[in-house]
Specification:
Blueprint (H helix, E strand, L loop, with lengths): L1 H31 L4 H13 L3 H16 L2 H9 L11 H8 L5 H8 L6 H15 L3 H32 L5 H39 L1
Helix pairs in contact: 1-2, 1-3, 1-8, 4-8, 5-9, 6-9, 7-9, 8-9
């Protein structure tokens, strides 16, 4: 848990910037009825100067939005699975065979027969993670996964909140539709990134164990 909080803290400024750009875009649409670069820059300049919004408001809002959903809910948003969402549940039934860097024979000699039950797979993989959590490849993969996971979760929340806010504005229906499409695409891209980095996190742990 402590390591997760440390990595999330390192990711904080990136999440704040991501949220700030989204807020600036929404305000540009609501206040000016435009989504061009000039309107976006004008709103962003005001946000970064007035009342310390960037220094105080964005971190607080980011903490709230990323805390609205728990880890399991975030995993479901990223991996599109209701049960056994995390890739650790498939560590030995799928991922151990998917990465050519993993020496399966070495792992088999150390761990014995690979578990097939998803919960047992995740439990064994987590033990290996704790063993290798200080390795650079594992630590960086973990940090990047947490970042993209949180961005995907925030993006999903923004679809619900910001699309409604834009729909209540005086912007044209075409702009409202385009903005909603942008929010959906933003979520799909961040979720895809989260899946890729989450899978890489799992395989990096297996690689480190197989190299011992």
């Amino acid at each position: 848990m402590a390591r997760n909080e440390y990595l999330k803290a390192k990711n904080g400024p990136l999440v704040w910037s991501f949220l700030g750009v989204n807020i600036a875009l929404l305000l540009a649409i609501v206040l000016s009825g435009k989504a061009d670069l000039t309107s976006l820059n004008a709103i962003w300049d005001q946000m970064t100067v007035k009342d310390g919004l960037t220094a105080i408001g964005l971190p607080v809002l980011a903490i709230i939005l990323t805390g609205v959903l728990g880890d399991i809910a975030k995993a479901r948003i990223v991996f599109w699975r209701i049960t056994d969402s995390l890739p650790g549940y498939r560590a030995f039934s799928h991922f151990v065979h998917s990465d050519p860097r993993i020496d399966e024979d070495s792992l088999g000699a150390k761990l014995g027969e690979f578990p097939s039950d998803p919960k047992e797979q995740n439990a064994l993989w987590y033990k290996l993670y704790k063993k290798h959590s200080d390795k650079l490849t594992v630590n960086e993969a973990h940090r990047t996964y947490l970042l993209t996971r949180d961005l995907a979760a925030v993006s999903a929340v923004l679809i619900c909140l910001f699309a409604v806010a834009a729909g209540l504005s005086d912007a044209t229906w075409k702009l409202q539709l385009g903005y909603t499409t942008y929010l959906v695409l933003q979520y799909l891209v961040t979720a895809a990134a989260g899946r890729n980095y989450g899978n890489r996190f799992v395989t990096n742990v297996l690689v480190e164990e197989s190299l011992l």
